[in-house]
Amino acid sequence: MELIFELSKSGRRGFIPPRADVKNYELDLKYVRKTPLNLPEVTEGDVVRHYTNLSRLNYAVDIGFYPLGSCTMKYNPKLNERVASLPGFTDIHPYQDLSTIQGALELMFNLGESLKKISGMDAITLQPAAGAHGEYTGIAIIRQYHRDRKDFERDEIIIPDSAHGTNPASSAMNGFKVVEIKSDDRGMVNVDELKKAVSSHTAGMMLTNPNTLGIFEENVLEISKIVHDAGGLMYYDGANLNAIMGQIRPGDLGFDIVHFNLHKTFSTPHGMGGPGSGPIAVKDYLADFLPIPTISKKGEEYTFDFSHKKSIGRVRSFYGNFSVVVKAYAYILIMGEEGIKKASEMAVLNANYLRAKISKILKVPYNNTCMHEFVATTLPLEEKGIKALDFVKRMLDYGIHPPTVYFPMIVHEDIMVEPTETESKDTLDHFVDIVEKIVKEAEENPEILKDAPHKTPIRRLDDTRAARNPVLRWKGN
Q1: Of the residues 82, 141, 316, 392, which has the fewest C-beta atoms closer than 10 A?
Q2: Global model pTM greater than 0.85
Q3: How buried is residue 344: exposed, middle or buried, by Cβ count under 10 Å (0-12/13-18/19+)?
Q4: What is the average pLDDT value for the chain, to the nearest integer?
């Protein structure tokens, strides 16, 4: 497809503004361009058709299935988008007088109360702008907690080898050393290894439950006790909360801090890097460390609360990603307690249905009952020269967005699938049919996979080169 600059023809225009009826203002020459703007010369029709055709090349959750493991790309109800675009939400400014934004404050306060109830926590902040940002904030609170107690020896965070990559990054950015715990043969935390790892240096442990293999950590209560007995805190990575919301609460499992991915669990799919929102909630003994300000209710009025004397400080400008907050609250109101519980049940049902089907076609290393996602591997196809990347590139030719590959790293040539609760049985069966076709192609004509995709506007890229040497601007002739 041609770029808008390549469509440009000298003399073409899309719009001619009327002659100005105000007095000209002569700018100082230091502000005047020395060269003309390099803008394309196109008609209005050219612009409309170009960008419409460009948009049709994009894949989106409104177009098809996103089986993106560990990222919960579920369908986003349009009503939530409509609510978030209401003028009363879009036309306000954070510097307005509090009396003029009581509705927004009430919404944020009520969302916080709902999230506390869902998670079993006592206090909350909506400030963090994404899940990883929530992680960073939560680990900063762990650091501040130990410093406040004059316990400066605690410089280690324990993290399972199946964790999201942001976990060790968030810990390291807060100055902690990362202690990795290997998984056992069932894909869960090896409790014996954990017992050996805890010490007077343990500041806390980060745990995703269910983990990135889609397996519920059955020994979570014992794990929490081991860490607490060693003087550490338990951090819950809420990336996979979609599997348990309404069923169990992290706060009842021994966790001290929880982060939420509002953009995953509560209806704002976050493909291509945004938008996001990563609130964190804590037990009451950590409330004083939360970033300021939080939102509180005094009588019938809502206000910003700066009273946290031991606060780690502000972690974001203003008070969070408000549009995502609005959509999350709309989602919770629409679903209600029973709806949220039903959503997690359907997420688990869909994942296990798909796992049972896929396990007859591809190898599923941990083929016990999963939660919201599971991991398969293409290793049996290796003798044909096929890798996981080849397999999912071929999915593009069938109009399916590829699942996550090569994560978690404890499974080789893995494909990580999360169907979410919003997909129908028909969609799941269609996905299984495609997987079956690709496996057959791999066995009979593997070159088709090695050269895939064949039907996309751009063929297979050199991923490493594209990441390290991206071409972000058109330079023209």
Answers
A1: 82
A2: yes
A3: buried
A4: 94
